[in-house]
Write a structure and sequence with these properties.
The complex is a heterodimer of chains A (about 110) and B (about 525). Chain A has about 110 residues and is mainly α. Helices cover about 50% and strands about 5% of the residues of chain A. In chain A, a hairpin with a 2-residue loop joins strand 1 and strand 2. In chain B, the strands form two sheets. A four-stranded parallel β-sheet of chain B has the order 2-1-3-4. The two termini of chain B are about 40 Å apart. Classes of the chains: A mainly alpha (about 110), B mainly alpha (about 525).
Chain lengths: ~110, ~525
């Protein structure tokens, strides 16, 4: 199996052991998708990290990623109402807040008819 | 995630039979399931040493257990009527995606081992050994079939490729070669109660959030009750309705309709899934396991009606199989099935589809709409394969085509159908059904969507269609992903009940929920 900075990841690039997550791993994963999570002055740096932290906080409480509507609402509260939409989240994570966002945040990939 | 490069099909003005490109969809198939996901379902964790022996034995078992499979394997006369009917063939040009060729992967092995001619004169009758190469072909090409059954409509013998594809997947699981997407999901469905693995606290929180949102928006306290004992209706809906867009706007619609009717209803945290992937992998046992959670929830919550939300194959499982699987409907013989049959109110269809319910309320004048709010929409309807070809609604011939269209037309003014040969019983699959809705199958999903996209493009040109309605969670997710590949707006796909939700005039204040208030909350 492949690894990122020594942490095992599955065939889709998600962490196998969620406890392995570090900020450095997130940065490394994002680099593979052409997203800069390391440089504070990079475009959308703070917004992206705000969303990743929201994902991690929610996961810690409920052991699952938040539903899209729950996430957009939380993002709207944190970053301003105009940003509480899935369209905006797609600008942060073009492959989808659910899948790409969860991957960087070290959450398991959401499964189902989604 | 190094995906293979491939060309996105160009949409033609007319669908034509493509020039064959042999081997274009060859490959390793979707990600394979590991021990972690195989074992909980009772399948070997990896390809077993004596896999050929196990596979042939399993084929023998299936041919005896399911008479239909044997009839389908024996009766094909190679007339060719099915060859150009599969969306995956039309979109990919790979001849192994012709339904007859797909069937023949399985049929040739069946002939070799289970027919006289195949045992003694294999070459004369196209009988083949099940070797590694054949098994790889099975895995690859039986995961390029969405079990949509369009080909069976055109087969003069009614051969159902879906059943052969289910049988092949069952054999694959038996030898330890399972698909990650389906089997990982099934593990969650039979332990946690839904495909997402959404536990009760998260579900409760999500529903509360939704209630808050609707009240903010409309000023009306529409409720999304969970685990309410003694409610009249138990709603079984795909978990995508809680989680994803555009699905959740459909769920908002269901809630508003229940609210306007004033009926008491509930969902169950134990059985919080309508989808049943047991059907996709061909396993009756696992399909039953998932369905029995619904029976337990219905018995525990003492409901008198069971209703199904917008989910295509869920409605097939519910309409066609729940009776003997669980006792919803008629035909159960075991103690709990009989108990449930006595408990359910025989004055209503059991199970009932949410479309049937809303349609009935509309017929009886119980719902009021302002259709003009949907005037910016030019709407068309995508018949989902499982609803169209395996179920009915309303107890009238073709009701499964009539009722959804009548509901849509009751809430918006501009409706047009797509080309006749691509809808109703001839509907094209969205391209993501049957356990194919996973990123690792994106190439076949996009190519397989081509015929549906072609028909959609035509009504976009002729009638300015800008809204596509579906009543299936898989269709909705699949379209969200593939629409932009064909230059459509990904947000044009909506639930039928989203249109209902937008047009409905909410009149009643929340005063008639005494039943709900009296009912006690089930605490675990």
């Amino acid at each position: 199996m492949a690894d990122i900075l020594g942490a095992e990841v599955d065939e889709e690039g998600f962490l196998v052991n969620l406890k392995d997550w570090t900020k450095e791993i997130a940065v490394e994963m994002a680099k593979g998708d052409d997203i800069d999570l390391a440089d504070e002055n990079a475009d959308l740096f703070h917004e992206r990290w705000d969303v990743l932290n929201l994902l991690r906080d929610y996961f810690e409480e409920y052991q699952i990623a938040p539903a899209v509507r729950v996430l957009t609402k939380a993002v709207g509260k944190k970053l301003g109402k105009d940003k509480g939409s899935s369209k905006y989240l797609y600008t942060l994570f073009p492959y989808g807040p659910g899948k790409q966002g969860c991957k960087f945040a070290g959450l398991p990939k959401p499964t189902g008819c989604i | 995630m190094a995906a293979k490069e491939f060309d996105i099909p160009v949409l033609p003005t007319y669908l034509e039979i493509p020039e064959i490109k042999e081997g274009i969809m060859e490959g390793d198939g979707p990600f394979k399931s590991s021990e972690q996901f195989q074992n909980p379902l009772g399948f070997p964790g990896e390809k077993v040493d004596n896999w050929q022996e196990v596979a042939i034995e399993k084929m023998g078992e299936l041919k005896s257990k399911y008479r239909s499979v044997q009839v389908f394997l024996d009766s094909c006369v190679k007339c060719g009527a099915c060859t150009d009917k599969c969306h995956y063939f039309l979109g990919s040009s790979d001849p192994k995606n012709m339904p007859v060729a797909r069937q023949d992967l399985f049929r040739s092995v069946y002939r070799r081992h289970f027919t006289f001619a195949g045992k003694y004169f294999p070459k004369l009758v196209g009988a083949k050994e099940l070797d590694d190469e054949m098994l790889d072909d099975w895995y690859n090409y039986f995961h390029q079939c969405s079990q949509c059954r369009r080909c069976s409509v055109f087969c003069p013998y009614g051969i159902d490729t879906a059943e052969i594809s289910m049988a092949a997947r069952e054999v694959l699981d038996a030898v330890g070669v399972g698909q990650k997407y389906c089997n990982q999901i099934l593990g969650k469905a039979i332990t946690i109660g839904n495909n997402l693995g959404l536990p009760e606290p998260a579900l409760r929180d999500t529903l509360l959030d939704l209630e808050e949102e609707i009240e903010e928006e409309t000023g009306i306290a529409v409720k999304y009750p969970l685990d309410v004992k003694g409610a009249e209706i138990l709603l079984i809906t795909p978990s995508a309705d809680f989680f994803a867009e555009p699905h959740i706007d459909g769920l908002i619609g269901y809630g508003k309709v229940f609210h306007e009717d004033g009926v008491s209803w509930t969902m169950s945290s134990y059985a919080s899934e309508g989808a049943n992937f047991g059907m996709f992998i061909g396993s009756y046992d696992i399909m039953r396991k998932a369905a029995l959670r619904i029976r337990k929830a219905a018995l525990d919550l003492e409901v008198s009606r069971v209703m199904v939300g917008e989910c295509g194959h869920a409605w097939r499982v519910a309409y066609s199989f729940w009776n003997t699987l669980t006792g919803v409907g008629a035909g159960a013989t075991d103690e709990f099935g009989l108990k449930l049959q006595n408990q359910l109110d025989s004055r209503y269809p059991q199970p009932q589809h949410i479309i049937e319910y809303t349609h009935d309320l509309i017929q009886r004048g119980k719902l009021k709409f302002d259709k003009s709010v949907n005037d910016d929409r030019n709407v068309t309807f995508h018949d989902s394969c499982n609803v169209a070809r395996a179920t009915n609604m309303g107890g009238i011939p073709n009701g499964q085509f009539i009722l959804p269209r009548e509901v849509i037309k009751a809430v918006c003014n501009n409706y047009v159908d797509m080309e006749r040969s691509t809808i109703k019983e001839s509907t094209f699959c969205c391209g993501g059904g049957g356990g194919l809705l996973t990123d690792d199958l994106m190439e076949i999903r996009i190519k397989g969507a081509m015929p549906r996209m072609q028909a959609l493009k035509e009504v976009e040109k002729t009638d300015g269609v800008n809204t596509l309605v579906a009543i299936c969670a898989i269709c909705k997710s699949q379209f969200s992903k593939v629409l932009p590949k064909f230059d459509f707006d990904p947000y044009m796909i909506v639930s039928a009940h989203q249109l209902v939700s937008e047009a409905i005039i909410m009149e009643k204040p929340q005063t008639d929920d005494s039943v709900t208030q009296e009912a006690e909350e089930v605490t675990e």
